């Protein structure tokens, strides 16, 4: 009998924060509008995928999820569903028994979604397995395929593989852009955005009242959906010269408007819902007051939750860190926040 050897592959993949938001999808995780995000650096998931050839292949996948060294059967149905979606693109997933050992750099129950980093790390491991079987695969093909597979697990996760900026969704002015995978932003970025900072203020770690899956679905039959999708296209066009010239005032206006529009879509869904908390608004107020008083172009953005991402340039880092420690941290749950910055994407370990 043939001895079965267990092999493994590992990746660390970061989270990302959208500047132009993806909200609304159709088909199998196809976005209704293009989006663009900063890839983060510190907030990431590390995943080791071990695999052993199965003796008998059945229609059921065989997998085990281990989070921080503990078996978590509760996460397995989601991965079974993901494997079902990717089966036709990576047919070998039914030929192995998988052990997925994963850990996040950010605290659990922090309200930071681990799905983008987690699913992109797993997608990279799986496509790496395919690359081992097809060594002629080009890097471009590898990146596209891994992002494509990540998208099927977590839409925004397809923007986590590269950095510093990734576009997902077809846009006439972004060469190579696609609804099927994320691509690295292909144009000039002014040095003022080098090592751009993102401080994540953890306002609420509670369970969200409405999941992003439900939120995306509420964009079907939404009164303002069509104009929102058009606006995102225009905003992405407008962001190109902002990034090129380092127009931070334009950046602040566009990014904050996108965040508030995302939440405006929630407020005007049917049924309507609110993911911001009172402290989300307190923080926004304080940021505006600080910006008025200091003239420093610091701004906020939000994802589908109550936490606030504070964005600022590297040269203002010391002052803004003081501002956060002294003034904003009191609006955070347990005074918690994470200082992160723009990163360059996933790495093979
Ligand atoms: O990838 P999902 O389904 O969790 O949706 C993410 C949606 C936002 O974070 C709100 C916006 C975005 O573009 O990341």
Keywords:
alpha+beta; binds (3R)-3-hydroxy-3-methyl-5-(phosphonooxy)pentanoic acid; 349 residues; four-stranded antiparallel β-sheet; Ribosomal Protein S5, domain 2
Explain what you see:
InterPro entries: GHMP_kinase_C_sf (IPR036554), Mev_decarb (IPR005935), MVD-like_N (IPR053859), Mvd1_C (IPR041431), Ribosomal_Su5_D2-typ_SF (IPR020568), Ribsml_uS5_D2-typ_fold_subgr (IPR014721). Residues 14-173 form the Diphosphomevalonate decarboxylase-like N-terminal domain. GO terms for molecular function: ATP binding; carboxy-lyase activity. Pfam families: MDD_C, MVD-like_N. It is a single chain. 35% of the residues lie in helices and 23% in strands. The protein has 349 residues and is of the alpha+beta class. It has a single domain, classed as Ribosomal Protein S5, domain 2 (2-Layer Sandwich). The strands form three sheets. Strands 1, 4, 5, 6, 7, 8, 9 and 14 form an eight-stranded mixed beta sheet that branches. A four-stranded antiparallel beta sheet has the order 11-12-10-13. A two-stranded antiparallel ribbon has the order 2-3. A hairpin with a 2-residue loop joins strand 5 and strand 6. Helix 5 packs antiparallel against helix 6. The structure holds (3R)-3-hydroxy-3-methyl-5-(phosphonooxy)pentanoic acid.
Secondary structure: elements and pairs:
Layout: E1 7-20, E2 25-26, E3 30-31, E4 35-53, E5 62-67, E6 70-71, H1 76-86, E7 96-104, H2 115-133, H3 139-153, E8 165-168, E9 182-184, E10 197-201, H4 212-217, H5 225-245, H6 248-267, H7 278-294, E11 299-302, E12 308-312, H8 317-328, E13 337-341, E14 347-348
Parallel strand pairs: 5-7
Antiparallel strand pairs: 1-4, 1-14, 2-3, 4-7, 4-8, 5-6, 8-9, 10-12, 10-13, 11-12
Helix pairs in contact: 2-3, 5-6
The structure holds (3R)-3-hydroxy-3-methyl-5-(phosphonooxy)pentanoic acid.
The site of (3R)-3-hydroxy-3-methyl-5-(phosphonooxy)pentanoic acid has 15 residues, from helix 4.
């Amino acid at each position: 009998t043939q001895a079965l050897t267990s092999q493994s592959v590992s990746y660390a993949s970061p989270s990302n924060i959208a500047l132009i938001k993806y909200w609304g999808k159709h088909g199998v995780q196809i976005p209704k509008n293009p989006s663009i995000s900063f890839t983060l650096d510190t907030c990431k998931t590390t995943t080791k995928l071990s695999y052993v050839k199965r003796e008998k292949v059945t229609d059921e996948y065989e997998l085990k999820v281990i989070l921080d060294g503990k078996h978590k059967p509760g996460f397995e149905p989601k991965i079974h569903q993901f494997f079902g979606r990717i089966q036709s693109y990576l047919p070998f997933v039914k030929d192995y028994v998988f052990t997925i050992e994963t850990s996040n750099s950010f605290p659990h129950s922090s309200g930071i979604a681990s799905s983008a980093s987690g699913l992109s790390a797993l997608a990279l491991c799986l496509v790496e397995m395919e690359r081992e079987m097809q060594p002629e695969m080009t890097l471009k093909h590898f990146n596209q395929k891994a992002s494509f597979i990540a998208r099927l697990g977590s839409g925004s996760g397809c923007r986590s593989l590269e950095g510093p900026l990734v576009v997902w969704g077809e846009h006439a002015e972004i060469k190579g852009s696609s609804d099927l995978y994320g691509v690295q932003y292909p144009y000039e970025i002014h040095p003022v955005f080098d090592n751009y900072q993102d401080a994540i203020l953890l306002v609420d770690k509670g369970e969200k009242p409405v999941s992003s899956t439900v939120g995306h679905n509420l964009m079907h039959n939404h009164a303002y959906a069509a104009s929102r999708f058009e606006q995102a296209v225009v905003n992405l066009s407008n962001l190109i010269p902002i990034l090129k010239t380092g127009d931070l005032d334009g950046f602040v206006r566009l990014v904050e408007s996108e965040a508030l529009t995302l939440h405006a879509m929630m407020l005007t869904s049917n049924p309507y819902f609110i993911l911001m908390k009172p402290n989300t608004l307190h923080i926004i107020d304080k940021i505006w007051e600080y910006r008025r008083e200091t003239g420093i172009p610091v701004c906020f953005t939000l994802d589908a939750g109550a936490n606030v991402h504070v964005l600022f340039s590297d040269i203002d880092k010391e002052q803004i860190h003081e501002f956060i420690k002294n003034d904003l941290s009191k609006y955070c749950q347990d005074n918690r926040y994470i200082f992160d910055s723009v990163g360059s994407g996933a790495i093979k370990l």
